[in-house]
Structure formats: structure tokens, C-alpha cells
Design brief:
alpha+beta; 2 domains; 5-stranded antiparallel beta sheet
């Protein structure tokens, strides 16, 4: 995405991890209007497909929104990034499928410890050290450790090998 594309979606600036970003304000913005702007672009560009899916996810989940980060300065390249409101600040996260290491629970989690979320940030190693001190959630079924670090989880078990896209779309 280019900067003009980001401004067509949101003009609200924020600071996340010391980085100037643009954030979708679900409370004061019109999420349906933003979704309608992206629906026609989702077939043209994979980034818009991801953005469209993420917009539908944040519509149905509290404390989540999307920021846009400049990741390719030379080419004016911006990418959407999911964030979760955690401990009073927006925290970058990756939504991913996870499982319990001791029982049959598996489901969707928000993982803030994915190193690529902090690419192009000068103090990324300090940020990752801080994140490793977070309180991470355990399995909601047996309280054991999950295979990935989670600060949010969908408290239901998924069956089979459903793709992450299906889970995000609510087709469980």
C-alpha cells in the first residue's frame, strides 16, 4: 500500500512502540465505510485481501483494531498490522492458530512475540525483552502452556484442520 491508500482509509495518527502509525478508530470512525472501500480492492491485491479479512475480524472483537506501518521507506510501502489494547496501550499482534501442549484444546490467539512485527524499529530487541515479561495466557481447558505466546485467545475449541481464514470469518 502507498501512503495515499492509507490516508483514504484513515488519517488518525498514533504512536505504537515509538513508531508513527495510522490507526483505524473503531469508536469514532465508520468501520462499515472502510470495509466498503476495501471490498472492491481485495481481488486486486493480496494486502487488501488481508486487510478486508482483518476488518471483518475487528468488527466482531473488542479491543482490536488495525494500524498501518511504514515498512519500506524507499518505496513508500505501508502494511496493515493488527493491534490489541493490552495493559493500557496498543500492542502489535499476529493472529494465529495455536494448541495446548497437554490436552486437545486448539484455537485462535493473539501473539505479540512475533519478531517480524518489530522490523524496522531501532529498539526492537528492547521491545521484545519487554514483551517476554508479559503475562501470557494458558490453555482455557486445562491451564497448561500453549505452543505460542498469547495475550488474547478465543475461548472455544476448534475441530479438524480448518484454515485460519475460516476461523476469522466465523465459519467454525
Amino acid at each position: 500500500m502507498r501512503f495515499d491508500d492509507v490516508l483514504a482509509i484513515t488519517k488518525q495518527e498514533a504512536n505504537v512502540d515509538g513508531e508513527k502509525v495510522y490507526i483505524i478508530d473503531k469508536e469514532n470512525g465508520d468501520l462499515d465505510e472502510i470495509i466498503s472501500k476495501t471490498i472492491f480492492m481485495k481481488d486486486k491485491n493480496y494486502t487488501y485481501t488481508l486487510l478486508y479479512n482483518d476488518l471483518n475480524f475487528i468488527r466482531n472483537h473488542d479491543n482490536f483494531t488495525i494500524i498501518f506501518r511504514l515498512v519500506y521507506k524507499k518505496y513508500d510501502g505501508w502494511l496493515p498490522c493488527m493491534v490489541y489494547y493490552y495493559n493500557g496501550v496498543w500492542q502489535k499482534v499476529v493472529l494465529q492458530y495455536s494448541y495446548c501442549t497437554m490436552c486437545d484444546w486448539n484455537g485462535l490467539i493473539a501473539n505479540p512475540a512475533e519478531a517480524s512485527l518489530y522490523d524496522n524499529i531501532s529498539n526492537r530487541f528492547e521491545i521484545l525483552k519487554k514483551i517476554n515479561k508479559f503475562f501470557f495466557l494458558c490453555c482455557p481447558k486445562c491451564k497448561s502452556q500453549l505452543d505460542s505466546k498469547a495475550i488474547w485467545l478465543e475461548n472455544k475449541t476448534h475441530t479438524g484442520n480448518r484454515p485460519l481464514y475460516d476461523m476469522i470469518q466465523g465459519q467454525t
